[in-house]
Specification:
By secondary structure, the protein is mostly helical. Helix content is 77%, strand content 0%. The relative contact order is 0.13.
Length: 179
């Protein structure tokens, strides 16, 4: 007996995050993309608010992050004449981001009550877990980009790091304003 389609979808994104599946294994479906986008919005908002952001700030950060990721992906795929890969790649990136975002709730929750206090074992553990999640996220995005753009994994990882820095700078500037 096969598990329900929703369970299969969750397993797919977990396997993608474990580098066992590829974005081209996903169907090119706008319905699936919309579903994954909705889950990612909910997860991003939950993560932002768990980290102490206000509702408005959480919505703004989540939407900006998704807009930047999907916009840059669209431009890059169009520039290398691989526009047909957009829907599957976008779905893979957003779905993987959602999975990692939900996993990130653990270290953010661990660190949350102690933010601003003296760092204790919980905060140190949360910091290490969060750092590991960032590295994992970069590896997963690199894996997805290597398949979308026909690149070596190292090049996909390098692009993922560059995008993360770009996204952090842009979102920080827009949400928090100039220092």
């Amino acid at each position: 007996m096969r598990p329900p389609a929703l369970v299969q979808l969750v397993y797919f994104f977990i396997d993608l995050c474990l580098l066992r599946r590829k974005p081209q294994d996903l169907p090119a479906s706008t319905t699936l993309f919309g579903l994954v986008l909705g889950v990612a919005l909910l997860g991003g908002l939950l993560l932002s608010m768990t980290a102490g952001a206000s509702l408005l700030s959480g919505v703004a950060q989540t939407l900006l992050d998704l807009f930047l990721m999907l916009g840059v992906l669209h431009v890059a795929l169009k520039a290398v004449n691989k526009r047909a890969r957009y829907l599957q790649t976008a779905t893979a990136l957003v779905g993987a981001d959602a999975v990692i975002g939900f996993v990130a709730l653990l270290p953010v929750t661990l660190a949350g009550p102690a933010l601003g206090a003296e760092p204790g074992p919980d905060v140190l553990l949360a910091g290490l877990l969060f750092l590991a999640l960032v590295a994992w996220s970069v590896l997963v995005v690199g894996h997805i980009l290597r398949h979308a753009f026909d690149l070596p994994l190292a090049q996909g990882v390098f692009i993922a790091i560059g995008f993360d820095i770009f996204s952090f700078v842009v979102i920080s500037a827009l949400i928090q304003g100039p220092a």
